[in-house]
Amino acid sequence: VKEVANLSLVGSACEVVSAADASSKESQPCLSSVGDAAEQGVQSVTQAMASCVQPVLATLEPHVAAVSEYAAKGLDKLGEKLPLLPKPVEQV
């Protein structure tokens, strides 16, 4: 997940979405309230899920590490075949 997030295309796309979100919250106060409530709900659910899943992840850690390494190699190969991935959205 970290390697995907570090791709310029993904990072710049997230920045564009974040800017659009901030702009819509500024221009529409009712959207801001609803969006803030939704974000807080998602954060609460995420925190609850993380605490429940943590013991399972600790058990599966060696397997997750192996899958992560395999996924990173696959992502590298994908990056070689798709030269758009390292570019920001503006250049694509």
UniProtKB/TrEMBL annotation:
InterPro entries given in the database record: Perilipin (IPR004279)
CC per GO annotation: cytosol; lipid droplet
Main location: other
One record GO biological process: positive regulation of triglyceride storage
Keywords associated with the record: Lipid droplet
A Pfam family of this chain: Perilipin
Superkingdom as given in the UniProt entry: Eukaryota
PANTHER family named among the record's database cross-references: PERILIPIN, PERILIPIN-RELATED
Stated family: Belongs to the perilipin family.
Protein name in the entry: PLIN3 protein
Organism for this UniProt entry: Cardinalis cardinalis (Northern cardinal)
